[in-house]
């Protein structure tokens, strides 16, 4: 009994230490985003401005230009990281992330159709992107249903639907005006360029609702990871529990996509990084969200400063990180004779 208590205490200490370290990385990246740029603001002045001080020029740069973008990067990364962790743990498949199984493609297709067909923009466009993600998630779930949902089947159905939706996007863009196509292509790459408080508040409100719901629904996750029969034997409500978690994870991915476009590979890469930092500690949902937040903050900083005078879409930088990991994962699966 004393040994069991010792093991639990060590696990708690490790989780707290890793989560604290990740939070420190997020805060450091956040401070870097606020203080550096064409106009350098010392950290002391940044803190003074955030607490109501500072001159008019500093307040404009920090509060109107950099703070909403940095907060958006933090929340977008956290939502993608948490969503990917739920998908991968629930379906027990490292390929099961929203950008692989078509959820992000659904949001992108809805946004393109809303712009080209309905002429929408701004908040209405973001709302339809979120709706597109939810409808795609529901379609993938229903088509994968065979007296239950198996992880590999849902991934294959999702890849098929995502590919079909990408074809729709490509067709609509070939029929569009060059200027409109350029703007949509930038959004589909995943970008935080030009984002303001108008884009932040809907994301903040949605995350305030969805993050606690996701963590609450994930209380059934440890039982479901044992398999349907074992989970049912332990008294867990298998399908309602799985559906609630998939709905929350899909909504989180749709919310983040509506705010910044389908920023690639964040949901895919963040969970395995968190699990590597906390081996044997389950899905590591909160650490995955922190890894996602740090990844998008640092990627957006690199996107702004990697090439002087040019602001790249943040999705290009995250893809440079995520694509090699995907190739490594596929090569490793082939070596061990697994399908992923």
Tag the structure with descriptive keywords:
0% strand; globular
Uncertain spans? none
What coarse outline follows from CA principal-axis ratios? globular
Annotation, overall tally of beta strands: 0
Distance between the termini: 38 Å
Main sheet makeup:
none
Question: How many DSSP helices?
Answer: 14
| Structural Rg | 21 Å
User: What is the SS-derived class?
Assistant: mainly alpha
As a percent range, the share of strand residues is under 5%
How much helix, percentage-wise, in residues? Answer: over 70%
> H/E series, N to C?
HHHHHHHHHHHHHH
Mean pLDDT: 86
Structure description:
The chain has helices at 2-35, 43-50, 56-91, 103-116, 122-144, 151-174, 178-189, 197-217, 221-224, 228-233, 238-260, 266-277, 285-305, 314-336. With 340 residues, the protein is mainly α.
The gist of it:
With 340 residues, this protein is an all-alpha fold. It is 77% helix and 0% strand.
């Amino acid at each position: 009994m004393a040994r069991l208590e010792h093991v639990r205490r060590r696990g708690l200490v490790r989780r707290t230490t890793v989560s604290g370290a990740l939070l420190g990385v997020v805060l450091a990246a956040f401070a870097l985003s606020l203080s550096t740029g064409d106009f350098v603001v010392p950290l002391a002045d940044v803190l003074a401005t955030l607490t109501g001080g500072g001159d008019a020029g500093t307040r404009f740069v920090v509060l109107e230009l950099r703070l909403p973008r940095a907060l958006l990067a933090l929340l977008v990364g956290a939502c993608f990281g948490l969503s990917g962790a739920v998908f991968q743990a629930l379906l027990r498949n490292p390929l099961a992330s929203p950008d692989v199984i078509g959820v992000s493609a659904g949001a992108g297709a809805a946004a393109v159709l809303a712009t080209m067909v309905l002429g929408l923009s701004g908040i209405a466009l973001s709302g339809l992107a979120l709706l597109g993600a939810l409808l795609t998630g529901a379609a993938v779930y229903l088509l994968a249903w065979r007296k239950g949902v198996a992880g590999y089947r849902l991934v294959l159905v999702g890849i098929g639907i995502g590919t079909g939706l990408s074809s729709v996007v490509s067709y609509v863009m070939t029929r569009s005006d060059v200027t409109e196509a350029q703007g949509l292509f930038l959004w589909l790459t995943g970008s935080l360029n030009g984002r303001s408080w108008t884009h932040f508040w809907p994301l903040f409100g949605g995350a305030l609702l969805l993050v606690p719901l996701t963590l609450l629904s994930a209380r059934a996750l440890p039982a479901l990871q044992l398999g349907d029969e074992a989970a049912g034997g332990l008294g867990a409500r298998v399908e309602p529990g799985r559906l609630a978690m998939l709905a929350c994870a899909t909504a989180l991915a749709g919310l983040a996509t509506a705010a910044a476009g389908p920023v690639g590979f964040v949901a895919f890469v963040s969970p395995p990084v968190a699990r590597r930092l906390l081996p044997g500690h389950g899905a590591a949902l909160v650490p995955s969200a922190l890894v996602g937040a740090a990844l998008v903050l640092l990627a957006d900083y690199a996107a702004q400063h990697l090439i002087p005078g040019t602001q790249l879409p943040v999705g290009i930088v995250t893809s440079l990180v995520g694509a090699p990991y995907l190739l490594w994962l596929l090569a490793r699966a082939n070596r061990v004779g697994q399908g992923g």
